[in-house]
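hey so i finally got around to running the thing on that chain from the lab meeting. sorry it took forever, my laptop kept dying and i had to restart like 3 times. anyway pasting the input first so we r on the same page abt which one it is
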Amino acid sequence: MAVLVTSKSGDISACRAAGEFGADFRQALLERSVSCRSEEAEGLFDEACQALETLAAANDERVARLERIVDQTAASADPVRLGELCDDFYAELYDHFGCYGSAVAFYHFSTHFLHALAGSLHRYALKRLGPSGKRLPDMMPLALGPAGRREFSPFCPLQVALVFGRAANGDLDEVSRYCDILQEGFATCGLRVNGDIALVNSSWRGSLPEWSRRLEQGLARGKRRELVELLRWADHEALLQTPAMEGEFRALVLSQLQQSRRAIGDLVSRLLDLSNGLGIMGGWRLERGGPYSGLFRLFEHGLLPLSATVTALALINRVDAVEIPQRIRALLVHRALDVDAAERLLQSWHTLNELRLMREREMFPGRDSAAAMYLDVAALDEKTRLMLREALETIDNVQRRVSAAYRVVEE
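ok and heres what got predicted. didnt touch it at all, straight out
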C-alpha cells in the first residue's frame, strides 16, 4: 500500500502497485459477493465505495491540518512559538504515518516544514542583528545528511552548513553572529543539532570561492578524513530559496565529486566494508551485548548501506537528484540499473524507511535516536521479516554492481 500512496510522485512500481491493488481489491469484493443476492452484492459494493471515500476524506483533513501548521510556522518569527508548532507538527505527522504508513508522505511534509522553519529562523536572526544585518551578504543555509536527501525527522541530528555571497572582511563577524543565532533557534525549537557539521563551525561555512577552493584542494590531497567530509556534500539541499546561488553551488560541488576518482574510490571502498545485516549462513546480525542485546541495528545494517550504495552509483553515473527514489529512477534511465533491480531497490527504500518511522513513532515524543534505530526482528510479523530480508539481500546485490561499475570507470 505504501508504494501505491506514492503513485503521484512517479515511482517505478507505482503503476504496477496500483494495478495489483485494484485487482486484489476487486477480487476480494467478488469473493465476498459470490454468495450474496443481487441487492446484498450491490450494498457490499456501495459500502466499499463509501469506506474508500471516508478514508480519502480523513486523509484530506489530516493533510489540511499539517498544511495549516506549516503556514503558521512560515508566518512566525518567535523561536518559542516555533518550538510549539514543531511539536504539534510532528505529533500530527507521526499520527498520519500511523494511519497510512507512507514514508514518502512523511518525508514530503517534513521537508516542507523544515524549509518553513528555516525561513522563519532566518528572519528572526536578521531581526536580532538589527541594522548590522543589512550588511550581510546573500545567505544560503544548506542541510546535509538525511535532511539533505529529504529524509529528515526530529530523531535526526540536523546537519547545517552555510554558503554566502561575497563579503567584506568586516562583515564576517556578522556572518558568525548570524550562524550563532540560527543554530540557537533550531535548538530552541527542540531539534537535535549536530555539533560538528554545523554552521557555527567555521569549516562548514564559507563563500562560493572558498568552497570551490576547499573542494579542489581537499580532493587533490586525497586524504581519507578530508574525502569523508567532502563526500557529505553528495547529499545536500538549500533550506532557503536562493535560486542563482543554489544552482551554481550544486553544480560546483557535484561536478567536482563526480570527476574525482579518489573520492568515488574512497566511497566505494568504505561501502564494500559495510555489513548488509545478514551472516554467511543467512542469519540476522544481532547485538550480542549491551542495552540493545538481541536487537538489529537498522541504520548500520540497512539505511546506511542503502543510501551509500545509491549515492555511489549516482556519482559514478553523474546523476543529479536530491532524493534516493529520484536517483533510482534516474539510474534506471541511465541504464545503470535494470528494471528489476530498480524496482527491488525502490521497494527496499520503502521497507527500511517504513520500519525506521514505525520505530520513531513508537518512541515519539521522545527523541532517543539511538534506541529508535534498533529493531526487534523477532517481534515483526512473518511478512515484514521477509520484506526486510529481501531489502538487505537487494542492497548486497547492488553493492556488487557498484564495485563492477567503478572498475569500468577506472579502466
